[in-house]
Structures are given as structure tokens and as C-alpha cells.
Amino acid sequence: MHPLWRAGRYGAALAAVWTVLAWLNDATYHPAPLLVGAVVPLGVALAADPPRSSLRLAGAAVGALLAVAATAALAVSGHLKGSSLLPTGGAVAEAVAFSLAGAVVGLVLGMARRGGG
Questions:
Q1: Residue in 103, 80, 105, 99 with CA at minimum distance from that of residue 31
Q2: What radius of gyration, in Å, describes the C-alpha atoms of the chain?
Q3: Which of 40, 84, 90, 110 is the most buried (most CB within 10 A)?
Q4: Which letter, b or e, does each residue of 77-91 get, where b requires 16 or more Cβ atoms within 10 Å of its Cβ?
Q5: Rounded distance, CA 8 to CA 10, Å?
Q6: Which candidate, 59, 32, 66, 31, places its Cα nearest to that of 43?
Q7: Is residue 7 within 8 Å of 61, Cβ to Cβ?
Q8: From the CB of residue 22, how many other CB atoms can be counted at a distance below 10 Å?
Q9: pLDDT one-digit tens code per residue, 48-91
Q10: d(CA 24, CA 41)
């Protein structure tokens, strides 16, 4: 299976777990968007054959997209409320920032782990 598809499935599963848990108890899971954003580029980087840089960037984009999509679904449904760890903005702004940060962190760690190739 292609490393991007496999890693994307892991990211989608993690995003689904986050969405369901937040939907059921209206809690703010602060690290969830960070983890969803990071799992896809890390999964791509840990493939058996070292992937190309373009595939690593695609993994970061997919991770960020999954995390932002889950954020949007929770925000629109009113299940993303609560405090924020950021000095300004609410839980939605925090989730978007953490989604993007997770994708960048996953990309950087993945490139450091397997070389920048």
C-alpha cells in the first residue's frame, strides 16, 4: 500500500476518534489536532523505502487538512467550545493553529528521522 494512503488512513482514524469523543462529551481535547496533523507526515516518513520530499510535503498537507476538517466539523456543530491554551482566540483558533503546527512538526521530525531526501 502506498505510504501516503496508509498514513492518511491512520490520520483519518485518529481524527474520527477525536471527533466522536468531543461530540459525546463536549470536552476540549487540546493535543488532538496536534496529533492528527503530525501522524500523517510521520507515517509517510516511516515507510520502508525513504519517500521523496514531495511525498513528505503531501503527507503534511493531508495531516493538516484532516485536522482542520475535524476542527470545522466540531466548530460548526457547536462541539468545540471551552478554554484555549493560546493567549488570544478561542478553542477553534487554537485547534487550527495546533493542526498546522502538528503538520509542520510531523514533517520536520519525519525529515530528521529518515534524511531530507
A1: 99
A2: 14
A3: 40
A4: eebbeeebeeeeeeb
A5: 5
A6: 59
A7: no
A8: 24
A9: 777 788 889 999 999 999 999 999 999 999 888 878 778 888 88
A10: 28
- For residues 8 and 51, which has the higher predicted lDDT (pLDDT)? 8
6 in Cβ contact with 48 (< 8 Å): no
Give yes or no for a contact between 103 and 67, defined as CB atoms under 8 angstroms apart: yes
Encoded amino acid at 29, one letter: Y
List Cα–Cα distances, 31 to 47, 51, 93, 101, in angstroms. Answer: 24, 27, 13, 11
Q: Looking at this protein, which amino acid is placed at residue 90? A: G
Q: Which amino acid is at 2?
A: H
SS (H, E, C) the chain: CCHHHHHHHHHHHHHHHHHHHHHHHCCCCCCHHHHHHHHHHHHHHCCCCCCCHHHHHHHHHHHHHHHHHHHHHHHHHCCCCCCCCCCCCCHHHHHHHHHHHHHHHHHHHHHHHHCCC
Backbone angles phi, psi at 2, to 5 degrees: -60, 135
